[in-house]
Design goal:
The complex is a heterodimer of chains A (about 260) and B (about 180). With about 260 residues, chain A is an alpha/beta fold. Helices cover about 25% and strands about 20% of the residues of chain A. Chain A has a single domain, classed as Spore Coat Polysaccharide Biosynthesis Protein SpsA, Chain A, CATH 3.90.550. Chain A is built from 8 helices and 9 strands. Chain A has a 6-stranded mixed beta sheet with strand order 2-1-3-6-5-7. A 3-stranded mixed beta sheet of chain A has the order 4-9-8. Chain A is globular. Chain A starts with 5 loop residues before the first strand and ends with a helix. With about 180 residues, chain B is an alpha+beta fold. Chain B has a single domain, classed as Jelly Rolls (Sandwich), CATH 2.60.120.10. Chain B contains 4 helices and 11 strands, in the order H-E-E-E-H-E-E-E-E-H-E-E-E-E-H. In chain B, strands 3-2-4-11-6-9 form a 6-stranded antiparallel beta sheet. Chain B has a 3-stranded antiparallel beta sheet with strand order 8-7-10, covered by helices on one side. Chain B has a two-stranded antiparallel ribbon with strand order 1-5. The radius of gyration of chain B is 16 Å and the shape is globular. The chains are: A alpha/beta (about 260), B alpha+beta (about 180).
């Protein structure tokens, strides 16, 4: 077992996501014997950032991680709307080769409008879980002052910088494609061949290593900042699992008060 | 009316669920259990999945429409700044805890809704002369259901008031009228 603490950065809101944060952190700790060094990336940590056009209160904080780590060592980024099912140390130890980043391939990721109607309309690496080599990331991520000032978000700037949407130029060179079970979107096989969510294969609950509640409408907890309508959650087995942990977390919280 | 299931749901939801937003109850903590809209929303919250049908049955029995299609059901916990949209016809409120004031309109429905929209801003609804609005106002009793049928209603919960809101489906009511 590696003794190095695992640095995990979680992108989250100031207070609206506490419910799922507790579930994520609890499950991360429950499934590993390794030491975790968790940083919650909240808007109050980045007060002077230009947040225009972001889809969530934390969209671009992830690009500050290499700088926060002094451009050294490894770190994992994850959005707060996730739940862990397997030792996160296994992801941390993934061999990145010469790559700066490890990400899951998302067949359905929408690429910029200029690729609409082309074979590159969809498909790119998902940045909702990223394993980073902070030193190598320096080649692709701007100084944090520039990211903070970036109007309409740094997300697209970063994607372009690493070569989006030209997969063949990027895969195993800049981005290591990691096992899709590390970022399963609502139980679906994120890198499945199907271009239609309804036809995408789904993992059995036991095969999900790390789950991302990607669809904002159907998230089980509906954070107050979300402007989206509410839809039922499709996978009962996953919902049952989340509620089981939510009950445990509340009992733990009340016991410790 | 047996309110045990409603009270249990209220306790469990505020303890275990994440408070949400709802356009009908501004600046309140809301917990949507069921909604027929573009998509059917049915919460996965275990106490709801267990009590969903018996709760609907209790509502149907109490309002005397045994086959009513229930359009939505929300648990609400009011805060200091909560403002409620006018409560439309064929909607009901079940007061579980705390204090609230309500006014039921007797006049033409559309005009009443217009008045109720203006009345949303009232700070002390108990001081209003509701008779001028063709309405009557009253303090809402706990552990009772309010269902004014085809009339509009204004609702003013105080901080900490906990209640269940439900609405009967408009299409069901149209069909029912045609059948009568």
């Amino acid at each position: 077992m590696n003794d190095e603490p695992i640095r995990i950065f979680i992108g989250t809101s100031e207070y609206e996501d506490k419910w799922i944060e507790r579930i994520l952190v609890y499950t991360l700790l429950q499934n590993t014997d390794r030491q975790l060094e968790i940083t919650m990336m909240r808007p109050s940590m980045f007060e002077d950032w230009d947040k225009t056009g972001w889809g969530t209160p934390f969209t671009c904080f992830r690009y500050a991680i290499p700088s926060l780590c002094n451009w050294e060592g490894r770190a994992i980024y994850m959005d707060c709307d996730q739940m862990n099912f397997r030792d996160i140390g296994d992801l941390y130890d993934t061999d990145l080769g010469d790559c700066a980043f490890g990400m899951v391939w998302d067949t359905l990721n929408m690429n910029p409008r200029e690729f609409e109607g082309t074979e590159r309309e969809r498909g790119w690496f998902s940045d909702s879980v990223i394993l980073m080599d902070c030193a190598k990331a320096a080649r692709y991520i701007d100084p944090v002052e520039n990211i903070a000032k970036c109007n309409w978000g740094y997300k697209n700037v970063f994607s372009k910088k690493i070569g989006s949407p030209y997969r063949e130029k990027v895969e195993d060179k800049i981005v290591k494609r990691i096992d899709a079970r590390w970022n399963s979107f609502d139980g679906y096989v994120t890198d499945s061949e199907s271009k239609n969510r309804d036809n995408q294969a789904q993992y059995h609950l036991d095969d999900i290593w790390h789950l991302h509640f990607t669809s904002l409408s159907s998230q089980i907890w509906h954070p107050k900042y979300s402007p989206h309508g509410k839809a039922s959650y499709r996978r009962k087995d996953i919902a049952d699992e989340v509620w089981k942990v939510a009950y445990k977390m509340q009992h733990l919280w009340e016991t410790l008060q | 009316m047996n309110l045990t299931l409603f009270n249990e749901l209220g306790k469990e939801a505020t303890r275990y669920m994440n408070p949400e937003n709802d356009w009908r109850f501004i600046h309140a903590d809301t917990y949507l259990m069921y909604n027929l809209g573009g998509n059917i929303y049915n919460s996965s919250f275990p106490p709801w999945t267990r009590s969903h049908q018996p709760i609907f049955e209790e509502i149907r029995n109490h309002i005397g429409m045994e086959d009513a299609v229930i359009h939505s059901l929300i648990l609400v916990e009011a805060g200091e700044y909560t403002v409620c949209q006018p409560i439309p016809k064929w909607s009901g409120l079940i007061m579980l805890e705390g204090e609230a004031y309500a006014a039921i309109y007797e006049g033409n429905y559309d005009s009443s809704m217009q008045l109720a929209r203006k009345a949303m801003s009232m700070h002390r609804p108990d001081l209003n002369w509701w008779v001028n609005f063709d309405a009557f106002g009253f303090n809402v009793d706990n552990q009772k259901m309010l269902f004014p049928g085809s009339r509009a209603m204004s609702f003013y919960p105080k901080k900490g008031a906990k209640f269940v809101y439900f609405k009967i489906d408009d299409k069901y009511m149209e069909r029912r009228k045609l059948d009568e």
